[in-house]
Amino acid sequence: MPAKRKASSNVRGGTKIGRDSAASTPGPATPRSIGSSSDEYSDAEPSESEKENIKKNINTFSVENYKAKQKSHAVAGGMDSASHHFGANDFSYLSLKPDHDNRPLWIDPHKGRIILESFSPLATHAQDFLTTIAEPLSRPVFLHEYALTPHSLYAAVSVGLDPKDIINVLDRLSKIPVPENIRKFITSCTHSYGKVKLVLKDTKHYIESSDPEMLQRLLKDEVIGPLRVQGTEEITSASAPKMAGLVIPGTKNFAGVQQAQPEGTKPKEGEPVQQEDIVATLNEDDDDDEDADAVHHFEISDGAVEKVQKRCLGLGLPVLEEYDFRNDSRNANLDIDLKPSAQIRHYQEKSLSKMFGNGRAKSGIIVLPCGAGKTLVGITAACTIKKGVIILCTSSMSVIQWRQEFLKWSNINPSDIAIFTSDNKDKFARNTGIIVTSYSMVAQRGKRSYDSQKMMDFIQSREWGLMILDEVHVVPANMFRNVTSAIKTHSKLGLTATLLREDDKISDLNFLIGPKLYEANWMELAEQGHIARVQCAEVWCPMTTEFYSEYLRHSAKKKQLIWTMNPRKFQACQFLIDYHEKRGDKIIVFADNIYALKAYATKLNKAFIYGETGNAERMRILENFQHNDKINTLFLSKIGDTSLDLPEATCLIQISSHYGSRRQEAQRLGRILRAKRRNDEGFNAFFYSLVSKDTQEMYFSSKRQAFLVDQGYAFKVITHLQGIEELPNLAFSTPSERRELLQNVLIANDADIDDDDKGDDMFHMMDGKSKAKAKKKANARRTAGALSELAGGQDMAYVEQNKSKNKELKRKKGEHNPFFKKLQRDQEKRRKALDE
Amino acid sequence: MSVSSLASFEYLEGLPGTTFRRLYLQPSTALAIFRRMLPHLAKTFVMAMLYMTKPIPLTDLDLWVHPNSKRQPTEALSLLSRLHIVHITARTRDDPQVVSLTKAFGSSLRLALTGGGDHQSFGVPSSDSTTADVDLNFLDDYAQMQWEGILHFVVSSVGEGMRQGGQGPTAAVKQLLESGNLVTRARHSGGGITQAGFSFLLQEANAQVWTLLLLWIKNAEKMEMDSVDVLSFLFMLGSLELGRAYSTTTLTASQKQMITYLVDFGLVYIPPSTKNQFFPTRLATTLTSDATALRSVAAGFDAAHTNASAMKGFIIIETNYRIYAYTTSPLQIAVLSLFTKLTTRYPNMVSGRITRESIYRAISHGITSDQVISYLSTHAHPQLLKASAAQGGGPVLPPTVVDQIRLWQIENERMKATSGFFFKEFENQKEYDACAKYADEVGVLVWKSDAKRMFFVSRVEQLRDYIKSRKMK
Question: Contact B310/B327 with Cβ under 8 angstroms?
C-alpha cells in the first residue's frame, strides 16, 4: 500500500485514476452522477503542498487500489455474449445468496458503489445505515445509489461505528456476499481513520487515541515528536467518555421520554424484530466497546495544532476533533436553552445525535436541503454546548436573520447575542455569549477600521465552544484556514444544502472541518411535508432568427447575453409571471446577468435587487414583496441565491444562470422549498428554468439539473406555453420591436455585460482585483465612423427608460397616513426638545 | 379479436384466387384460416353457411345482426371475400345479391370438422419407436435456444455476431434475415439491426415466427418452391400435437426441403438418430392458434425457464435516466444495449443510463423513439406498474423521461417533408384565388404564396375535378 501511494502522488492528475473516462464528452449530455461529473474540473488549481497532501491521501484510499485480482476469475467464469457491453464491470460471476429477493443491496466490487432497492421491506433501515457509511449519489423513486468513499467511512467511524459491524450489516443486507476487496477497503479505511483525536481540554490540546501504539508511533514521528509539550507525562490514560446523561434539547429525550439508546433510532412498534435490530444492535455494540475502552493522550502546544493536523494527514491518520464541553470548566457557561415551543424534527434530531454521538461535540458538516431548518440545527447545537458560540454567515443580511432566529427559538438574553458587521460592532454584555458575523469580516486581511480591529482582537483572544459555519460550501479552503487559525474554537459545525462544487474543493472540507455527519433525503422530506413539493420545468424558448444569426457570430460573452435577451424567452417569462400572479403566487425571477436583470425588470415594471442595491432599499423591497399584495414579483441577481429567507415565494423563474453550476440550481430551488403554504392540500411550488433552444445554454442546463435530478426531481420539458399568443401586451411581438431589442443588446458595451454580480459566493471574489482591472480600461476610445453616426443617422437605437419599480416603492413609503405623519412630527419635536 | 390485423397476414390477402383455391384443398389449411384469421362474426357466418346447400340472399344475412351495427357484418363479409372464403354475386337488376361459401373451402372445412378422408393433412404420426428423451421440456428448450439464437443475431450487430463463432444461427438464416432487411451489413449506418429489425424484436414470439416464415416464403418463391405447398405445410404444422413424433415420409419434396429450414428456426426438431421422424415444437403448434394461445407460448417458455420473472416486466427506469433491468438473459441485455449505455452487470441485474448519445445511436439504426418507449413500457417492472396504479393509473414510465426521449429524436428532425402537388402559373388572380380558396376549404392546402400565385396541396383529386369543372364553364 505505501508503494502505491507514492506512485499515484507522483503523477499529476493521478486523481483521475480509474474515474469515468467519458466524463468530458462535449455537447449536451444527460445528467450525470455527482461522482463522475465533478471530475472534469478536478484539475483546476493544482499544487500547494497541503492540497497535494490531501489529494495524496484521497488517492491512497480510493477503492480502486483495493481492486482484487478478479479479472482472471471473470474471464474464466460465466462470460457470455452480453459481457462485452460491460468490460470490466461484469460482475455476473458473483454468486447470489439463495434468499436474495429479501435483501435490498448490490455492491459493486470495483467502485464501491451500492445500489439499494427502495421498495424492499428492509429499505428504510438499510437507508439509515447507508447514509451513515456511504455518500448518497442518487435517490429517485425506486433504486438508490450510494458510494463507499474514504470520507463516508471516515464519517461512519467518527459517529462510532466499528468496521466489523459495518461489514456484518452490509453482508446481512446484500444480495451478494460482500466482496473481499470491499471488506479490505472498509477495514483499512476505518483502521486509519478516526483513531486519533484532537481534544481541547482545559484549553490545552491533547492528542488522544484508544490505541497506545498509535500514539507511540506519532511520538516517534520526526515532526510530531518535538511538538509535544515537554515536561508532561508521556502518555496518560483516562476512561472514554460516554453519551450517558447528555440530552440534546428539543429532542424526545429532552421531553422526558427516557431512552437509553444513544442514537435517535426509535424502532416503530409492530415492526418485525429482525428489522429493528440491525441498527440497534450496532449501537449497543458501540456502547459495550466504549465502556471497556480506555483512552490515552499526550499534550501538544496550541501553536502546533495545525502542524500536527497536517502531519497526521500525511501519515494517513487524519485527526478527529472532539470537544468535551461538559467537562470544560474554564470557559463560562452560556445561559441558553431552546424555548419549550421549539420542537425539532426527526431528521434534525438524527443529525444532531450524530454530532453528539458520544457525549462530546464532534466537528463535521450537516447537509440539509434549503428550508429544512438548518438554522434550528445550529441553534440546537449551540443550546447543547452552552458555551461561547461564533457564527459565520455569508452576508450581512443573513447575519441579521441568524440573530433573529436565535431570539425566536431560544431563551437567550438579547444582550448576550451580538453582531459584528461593517455597520455594527457590538460586544455581548457578559463574560460569554454569541457573536454572529460574516466570513468576509473575519477573514479580511490588511487594514481595518479601529473598531473592527478591536473587535477582531476580542474574538481572537477568546476561546469559543462552537463555531457554526453557515453555507459552508461557499468558503474556499484558504479563507477557511484564515478563519480557523485566527479563532480558537473547540468544535466546528458546517451547515449546507449542497455539498458540491464544480471543482474538487469540496473534499477539502472533509479534512478541514470534519466529515459529513448527516445528509437528508430531499424527496423524503418533501413527502413528509417538511419542505415544499416542487414541479420543475425546463421551458425551451426557440431563438428568433435575427437573434440566432447574431448568436452564431459573436464572442462567448456576448452569446450569453444574446441567449438571455432572446425575445421569446422574454415573452415566456412575461407569460409565466402573468399566469402565476393571477394564481396568487409570489414569484422570484433569477437572472445572473445584471444587464438582463435590469432590462427585464424595467420592461415588466417589477422590483429588483442586485449587488449595488443599498441595504435599506433591499430591506424595503423585501418587506414589500412579503407583505404588499401589489408586489408579487421580484427580480433577483446572484445575491439572492443563498440564505435569503422568503417563505412567501412559491414560484421561481430562472432566466440566466452561472454556466453549469449544479449548486446554484439547487440553492435557487431552495428559495421556494420553505414556502409557507407548503402544507396546503395539493400545494405545489413551481420552478421554471428558461433556456434558449439550440444554444449552449441547453448543455449547461442539463448539467445544472444533474444534482436535483439525482435527488429525485424530474424536470418536465415544455416546448410550448399554451396560450402565450393570447397574452395582451406581449412584449416584442412585432419584428421591429425585436430588431430594436437586438440593437440594444448589441450596443450594450462590454462593461455593461461584465457587470456581473459577485453575489455571496466568495470563490468568485478575487480580492477586488477584477474591479481594479475594469476601472483601468475606462479610458478614451477611438473608433472609425461617419459623422452621420454621431448625429444618430444610422441605426441609433431608442432606449426605453422605464422608471424603476424600486423607486416607486420608495415613494410609496413617503405617503403616510396623516395620523402617522403627525405622530412623526411630534416625535421629532420631542427629540429636538430633548437635545436642547 | 383475431390476429387478422397482423401485418404478416396482408401477405395472404394479397395472394391470387387460384392460390387460395389450391390452399383450401387441404382441410388443415381451411381449419387454420378459419381458426386464426377470422373475427367472431365472420366465424358465425361461416358456420351458419357451412351446411347450406343453396346460396342465401345477402338481405337474410342482415337479419342476423343488430340493425344498429351495420359496419361489423360489412367488414366481416369483405374480409371473407378477400380471403376467398365466400362468394358474393354481383349486384344486378333482377336477382338479389346472394352469398355462398366457396366450394373448396366449404368441403375442406367440413372434412376437417367431421374427420374422414385420406388427405393426411393433419400429419401422419410416426409408427417408429420414439426417442425416449424427447419430452415437452426438451422441445421447449430446443425451440427457445434456436429462436433466441436468431433474435440474438438480430440484436448484436452482424460483426459481433460473427465473434460468437458457431453459436449463432445457420448461414441460411442469416442470409434470410439480411434479405428481409432485419439486419444490415452496411457499415455506413453502423451495421447491425435496422428499424424493421427492431420492430421485429418488439413483436410477440408468435408474430415474430410468422414474420420470419413469410420472409422465407417470399424467398422460397425465388427458389422455385411452390408457395401453396409451403403454406399448407405450415398450416398443417399448426394443427399437430406437441410432443408427438410425426413421419416425414408422407411429405412432398418441397416440404421435405423446407423442414430443414424449420429445424433452423426451432419450429421442428428432428432427432439425429431417426431421420424420418420430426417433432413439432411449441413454436410450430401455436402457429395457428388465436390470440389467447399466443400468450401460452410465453407461458410455456416461462415454465421451461423456471425463472418466471424473465418474461415479465423487468425494467425500472428512473427520473434521473438510470435504467435498472432485472435480467440475466444475454438477449435482453443485448436489446437494452441498443439504446442504453450499460454500465454495470450484477448477477441478476444490469444497470445503465439512457443518454442523448445512446438514443442517437438507436435512432441512427432506424429505431424510433416510440419503439424504445413502447419496449420500455411493455417490459416495465411490476414496481413501476404498482406506482402508477397507486397514482390512479398514471403513466407507467416517468413522463419526463418519455418526453426527453421523444425530444431527442425530434431534435434531429427539424425538416418535415410533405408529399403533394404544387400549383403555379395561374392564368389570372381570380383563377388563383378561387383555387386556393377551394383547396383551403377541402383542407388540403399546405402552403400558399399570394404574391407569387402559387400553392401546395397534399391531395389533388378533388382539386383536379374542381379545376376541370371550372374549365368546363
Answer: yes
